Amino acid sequence: MRLSDPLLRKTAEKITAGERLDFEDAMVLYRSSDLNGVGLLAHRERLRRHGLKAFFIRNQHLNYSNVCRNRCVFCAYAKNEGDPKAYTLSLEEVRDQLTCRASESIREIHMVGGLNPRLDFQYFENLLLLIREVRPEAVIKAFTAVELDYLSGITGYSIEKVVLRLKEAGLAMMPGGGAEVLNDRIHKALFPKKITSERWLEIIETVHDQGIPTNATMLYGHLETHEERVEHLLRLRDLQDRTGGFSAFIPLAFHSANTPLAHLPPTSGVDDLRTIAVSRLLLDNFDHIKAYWVMLGEKLAQTALYFGADDMDGTIVEERITHTAGATSPKGMSREALMYLIESAGMVPVERDSFYNPISGESHGNLI
Ligand code: V47
Ligand code: SF4
């Protein structure tokens, strides 16, 4: 492989030899002038793992309440109780949101919300039971370590008991949010009321030990340095070495509108692609890297399939968190539109369930 940046060559040799990359390698990938070279290394790794397959899922997002006592600085979605834009869905409203899509084969319900002090444990259990009743064929991927810590606090239950109860009510997987950047400086500056990095890691380890897989995310493009991003990735990789419970990693590009950080520019396409590529190369024990089209936009998400990403996430139906912060992508996408994005990028769409099993034997084989 021809690399125009000589500084990249040593790291490229390690990748070719199948050696694990370290902090310095990741910084070389971040600093290199040869973005295409970094992308090519990540693409080669992506082809080795998945060929030209690009996964997607028919899913629906549900956000039960935007009332949140944490009020993270980067979050435009959360509101205080009494705010005219504050809402909390009743179980009947949740039922309506689910049944209005009854004709579609939705495979996953992705559900997160704010820490609303008026919601008790019963509400969360009832949400899961209701989804299981209305959508018995869908996997429920819900809550983050942040909600689990909250539920443990209001009930006095251990995290193990919270997970067990939610599992009994239908929880099968957890999304990757809540970690933001696993770093004390950023925690203090941007989300001081949220659980610490150590607590997030400890809770996720417990969740994995209880047999529930989760994703992991990283919110990037605000105050964090490249070094802090790399530390975040390495902390996730360490935990994955111990538990093997992470399914996919999803870099989340920060959107600043309607937040106190509105003066910050959007992430650049170059940074988005490089971050996908560094994630693919550093997280050697993660099977999947997601290009979340909602935050990247459809065209950059397509391009990311050539920088290490193998998954486009899903149909979503209605996204709220990023759109409140100024996202200009659509709020949802049809299965056909997602497949078009993948096919017109020269990849093979594979519809999957939450655990990356192809739907109805639709595996297209490894084409490389
Ligand atoms: O934890 C909040 C992020 C996350 C903003 O696991 C913002 O499959 C950008 O975790 N700009 C929730 N991001 C979303 C999330 C997620 C999304 C899609 C798929 C999966 C998955 C997980 O959204 C939060 C936070 O990091 N977020 N505000 C913002 N202004
Ligand atoms: Fe609340 Fe989550 Fe928004 Fe933070 S990111 S304010 S915890 S809803």
UniProtKB/TrEMBL annotation:
Annotated keywords: 4Fe-4S, Iron, Iron-sulfur, Menaquinone biosynthesis, Metal-binding, S-adenosyl-L-methionine, Transferase
Enzyme Commission no: 2.5.1.120
Domain Radical SAM core residues, every copy: 54-287
Cofactor, free-text remark: Binds 1 [4Fe-4S] cluster. The cluster is coordinated with 3 cysteines and an exchangeable S-adenosyl-L-methionine.
SMART domains (alphabetical): Elp3 (SM00729)
Region forming the signal peptide: none
Coiled-coil region: none
Requisite cofactors: [4Fe-4S] cluster
Reactions mediated catalytically: 3-[(1-carboxyvinyl)-oxy]benzoate + S-adenosyl-L-methionine + H2O = 6-amino-6-deoxyfutalosine + hydrogencarbonate + L-methionine + H(+)
HAMAP family hit by this protein: MqnE
Family, per entry: Belongs to the radical SAM superfamily. MqnE family.
Functional description taken from the UniProt entry: Radical SAM enzyme that catalyzes the addition of the adenosyl radical to the double bond of 3-[(1-carboxyvinyl)oxy]benzoate, leading to aminodeoxyfutalosine (AFL), a key intermediate in the formation of menaquinone (MK, vitamin K2) from chorismate.
Protein's name according to its UniProt entry: Aminodeoxyfutalosine synthase
Source organism: Desulfobotulus pelophilus
Lineage, top ranks: Bacteria, Pseudomonadati, Thermodesulfobacteriota, Desulfobacteria, Desulfobacterales
